[in-house]
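Students often ask why inverse folding is considered easier than folding. One informal answer: many sequences map to the same fold, so there is more than one right answer. In these notes we will look at a single instance of the problem. The structure comes first.
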């Protein structure tokens, strides 16, 4: 006998699985052969599928279908371990419908923690786990997977380890809606099935690695070509770091160069998460930290759990979050030039492919550093080879001291549109734009090169060569020797496409960052259209935003940005190509505090309201999520006359704003005033931007809705909490009242008898009797108990308030008169600050007086022997009368304030703990509220709030007869009178 994992006793074979039952020799042999035959056929079909396809879904579907032939399997899934084996992923699952038996198979990417899971148990033991009764197992506290299977209606399950070439790759999970009776042969068969699935996973993993490697090689080649093409060392390092970080998704990439003069490695370029935390120029000693160690040894360092590496140095607090780090030396031969360092926040983030890729990059970077240094050293020492000059892609002109052309290449001749023989010997005034020569500084730069031997860079200049006014050039003027003559070289690099492309990418990145980080919907919409119309951004003259209103079924104009006349259109840049505004200034312009209604183009947006069921072109753009470029709106049948007349433009582009594959709006942009061409590049950029804007708008709308919902929930929670507190207090007071009434009733008669006999004995024995002192103590204690009993009776059976229109200030004055002697005895000042315009309030004057007496007397008693002051004020606030009673006493501890109004809670040895409980009940019965604020060593303030609204008839009646009105007397009031009010107290 053995035990199942669920605790039930079963027959086990050496593998822990029940053996098949005994059969007759003939029948058992035949059944065994049939079972083996079926299993063999099943394995054949599964193997055929596994070999013929790499789709895990199809393999699982076949597995479930085949297993159902002789096992009641309803669910199959594959759980694959993820490095560094802290989680596992459900790669795919297949479930059969309980009614039709139809299979549903799908791929998933659900991930679960490995710790404490059944998968971890199977991986650790390398043994299957069988649960014959999931309900019983879950009731006793099973694994999380067992709970999920039980919730899905499964009655039994089995977990089979999937053994791969490198160990256990994962676990095959099978479950059934019925009990699973598995034999040793069944288990062996399932283990074979698991091996088949493992093979599919291995092949899929291998293919993914191949695809990843091919992709990385392509990226390496692309970055390598870009790197090798640069000669400026700093720009090259910056571009390389940015490209590696962008393409490979590392958290941070840093390039350090060795400074042999001081024995440091210096951060020269960085991209990623640390750009805001560190600065270029950061230094670290060679031999210190992972980077310094790599620079010292030249060996690659892979720390997939950097927290466990003793060489690690945390340079700044943000670096403490890093989980893995990879350092590769930049070297040529034995010369170590620096270190390429990449970091990730995930432990185990790097593998051998990362090492190979970065070592390849390191070689390219080292070689490029050599090239850049060599270029800088030799550029000014060697004469240009005329044959090379003629074929170089950049335009080049060499002039002598008289500013006449001595050498020119074919590129310049093509740009100038003149043959080479016409250019040679010509004065440069015949070749370049007049403004460039004088105001632009070309002549001065040439003279500086000729006279002082200094080179001059003139970056990004427009209007250099007549006939090419729109092209941008980078000019480099340098001294060169031409034989024995001193000359100056003018190198013209056409950077038009590069600058435009780089600027567009940079602009789009900045725009998207600004848009994605804005959650204020109004500001976001203003920012979106400002970016569309800014000359430093997309550069359209005007932009109109229409939003989809699903509730009304319309596409409605929401906002329009741009000038309403041609004279207000800003210039993009001046004649020399220098941009006038920075992007930060563009963002500042978007913070226009004017209401939308005051913007010049608001009338256009307000008129646009189109049915989502119409055939209008812009509506179809939204419905079909497509971009439309309209070049002649007046003759385009898809554009209605009304729409064209509203926007007033014959040439525009309509781009849908899409979020999560749904169009939420539309941007209509045009160049009405400048009449500039709307190019395909501009449309592509606007389309990309609109997609990002769509997500940002959706996020902002969701944030706005969430914020409103949170506010509503907070208010509802406050109301619910207040109601709950009042209900709990009411129930507590009612329960304590019942107990107090019963106790008071039971001890009243014995207490009266004891007091009577004690007073009788006192009269009989006289003052000289030895027991007279003891009898007097009995009398005093009985009197004290009678007072306590009276307080209990007041608490347990208080009379309902008899409300009449009353003057609250008059009641406060009466309280101060009653407690004047007590204040004097306490060496206290009793101050009043009563609002003269208080309205009449509907209250039981005697009960309110009782409540005020309790609070004021407590305030006097809190002052202590050194005295102090008690301030009483009244005022009308938000339709209610508010009374503040403040003292300068010792204060109340914070943990005591919440118990002040609890019955029988007191801090005085002789207190009953009922005074403030009765006070709060009186205020609550008057539909008011009482609050306490206290600070130790400063004092305490009790605030009473009572409703000020009273019926009109009662107000008139109260005004006419207020002097005569007195509260309806009760038997207890008549009995106790003012003496009882003066004695009421609670600590």
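Output (designed amino acids):
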């Amino acid at each position: 006998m053995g035990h199942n994992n669920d605790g039930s006793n079963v027959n086990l074979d050496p593998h822990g699985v029940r053996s098949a039952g005994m059969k007759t020799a003939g029948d058992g042999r035949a059944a065994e052969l049939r079972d083996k035959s079926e299993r063999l056929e099943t394995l054949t079909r599964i193997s055929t599928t596994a070999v013929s396809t790499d789709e895990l879904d199809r393999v699982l579907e076949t597995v479930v279908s085949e297993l159902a032939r002789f096992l009641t399997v309803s669910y199959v899934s594959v759980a694959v371990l993820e490095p560094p084996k802290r989680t596992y992923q459900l790669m795919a699952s297949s479930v059969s419908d309980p009614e039709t038996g139809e299979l549903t198979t799908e791929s998933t990417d659900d991930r679960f923690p490995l710790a404490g899971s059944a998968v971890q148990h199977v991986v650790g033991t390398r043994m299957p786990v069988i649960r014959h009764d999931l309900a019983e197992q879950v009731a006793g506290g099973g694994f999380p997977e067992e709970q999920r299977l039980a919730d899905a209606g499964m009655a039994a399950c089995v977990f089979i380890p999937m053994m791969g070439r490198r160990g256990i790759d994962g676990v095959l999970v099978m479950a059934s809606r019925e009990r699973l009776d598995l034999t040793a042969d069944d288990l062996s068969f399932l283990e074979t099935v698991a091996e088949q699935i493992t093979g599919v996973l291995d092949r899929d993993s291998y293919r993914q690695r191949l695809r990843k490697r091919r992709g990385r090689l392509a990226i390496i080649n692309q970055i390598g070509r870009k790197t090798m093409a640069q000669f400026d060392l700093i720009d090259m390092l910056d571009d390389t770091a940015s490209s590696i970080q962008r393409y490979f998704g590392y958290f941070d990439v840093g390039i350090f160069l060795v400074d042999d003069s001081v024995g440091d490695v210096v951060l020269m370029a960085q991209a990623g998460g640390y750009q805001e935390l560190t600065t270029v120029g950061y230094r670290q000693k060679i031999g210190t930290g992972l980077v310094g160690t790599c620079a010292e040894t030249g060996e690659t360092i892979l720390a997939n759990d950097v927290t466990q590496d003793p060489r690690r140095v945390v340079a700044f607090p943000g670096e403490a979050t890093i989980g893995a780090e990879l350092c590769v030396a930049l070297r040529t031969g034995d010369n170590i030039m620096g270190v390429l360092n990449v970091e990730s926040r995930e432990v185990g983030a790097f593998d051998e492919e990362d090492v190979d890729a970065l070592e390849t990059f390191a070689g390219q970077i080292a070689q490029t550093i050599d090239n850049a240094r060599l270029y800088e050293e030799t550029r000014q020492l060697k004469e240009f080879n005329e044959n090379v000059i003629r074929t170089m892609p950049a335009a080049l002109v060499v002039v002598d001291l008289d500013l006449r052309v001595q050498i020119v290449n074919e590129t310049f001749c093509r740009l100038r549109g003149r043959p080479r023989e016409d250019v040679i010997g010509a004065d440069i005034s015949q070749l370049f734009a007049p403004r460039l020569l004088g105001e632009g500084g070309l002549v001065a730069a040439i003279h500086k090169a000729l006279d002082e031997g200094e080179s001059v860079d003139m970056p990004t200049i427009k209007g250099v060569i007549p006939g090419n006014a729109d092209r941008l050039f980078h000019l480099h003027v340098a001294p060169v020797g031409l034989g024995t003559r001193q000359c100056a070289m003018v190198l013209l690099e056409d950077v038009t496409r590069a600058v435009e492309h780089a600027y567009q990418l940079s602009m789009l990145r900045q725009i998207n960052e600004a848009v994605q980080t804005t959650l204020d919907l109004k500001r976001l919409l203003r920012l979106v259209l400002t970016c569309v119309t800014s000359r430093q951004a997309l550069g359209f003259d005007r932009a109109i935003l229409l939003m989809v209103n699903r509730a009304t079924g319309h596409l409605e104009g929401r906002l329009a940005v741009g000038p309403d006349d041609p004279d207000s259109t800003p210039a993009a840049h001046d004649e020399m190509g220098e941009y006038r505004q920075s992007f930060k200034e563009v963002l500042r312009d978007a913070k226009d505090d004017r209401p939308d209604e005051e913007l010049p183009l608001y009338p256009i947006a307000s008129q646009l309201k189109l049915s989502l069921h119409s055939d209008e072109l812009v509506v179809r753009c939204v419905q079909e999520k497509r971009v439309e470029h309209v070049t002649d709106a007046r003759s385009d049948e898809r554009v209605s006359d009304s729409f064209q007349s509203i926007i007033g433009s014959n040439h525009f582009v309509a781009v849908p704003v899409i979020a999560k594959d749904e169009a939420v709006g539309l941007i209509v942009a045009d160049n009405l005033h400048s009449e500039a061409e709307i190019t395909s590049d501009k449309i592509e950029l606007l389309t990309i931007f609109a997609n990002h804007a769509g997500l940002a708008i959706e996020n902002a709308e969701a944030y706005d809705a969430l914020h409103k919902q949170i506010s509503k929930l907070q208010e509802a929670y406050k109301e619910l909490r207040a109601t709950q507190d009042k209900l709990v207090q009411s129930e507590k007071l009612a329960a304590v009242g019942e107990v107090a009434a019963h106790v008071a009733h039971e001890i009243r008669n014995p207490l009266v008898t004891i007091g009577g006999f004690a007073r009788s004995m006192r009269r009989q024995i006289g003052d000289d009797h030895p027991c007279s002192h003891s009898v007097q103590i009995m009398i005093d204690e009985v009197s004290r108990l009678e007072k306590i009993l009276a307080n209990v009776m007041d608490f347990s059976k208080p009379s309902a308030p008899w409300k009449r229109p009353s003057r609250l200030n008059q009641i406060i004055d009466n309280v101060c008169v009653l407690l004047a002697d007590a204040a004097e005895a306490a060496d206290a000042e009793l101050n009043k600050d009563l609002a003269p315009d208080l309205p009449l309030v509907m209250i039981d004057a005697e009960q309110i007086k009782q409540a005020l007496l309790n609070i004021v007397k407590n305030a006097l008693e809190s002052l202590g022997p050194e005295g102090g002051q008690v301030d009483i004020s009244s005022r009308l606030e938000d339709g209610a009368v508010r009374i503040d009673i403040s003292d300068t006493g010792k204060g109340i501890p914070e943990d005591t304030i919440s118990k002040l109004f609890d019955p029988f809670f007191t801090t005085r040895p002789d207190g009953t703990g009922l005074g403030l409980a009765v006070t709060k009940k009186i205020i609550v019965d008057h539909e008011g509220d009482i609050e306490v604020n206290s600070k130790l060593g400063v004092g305490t303030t009790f605030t009473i709030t009572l409703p000020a609204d009273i019926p009109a008839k009662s107000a008139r009646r109260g005004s006419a007869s207020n002097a005569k009105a007195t509260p309806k007397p009760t038997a207890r009031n008549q009995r106790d009178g003012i003496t009882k009010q003066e004695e009421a107290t609670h600590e």
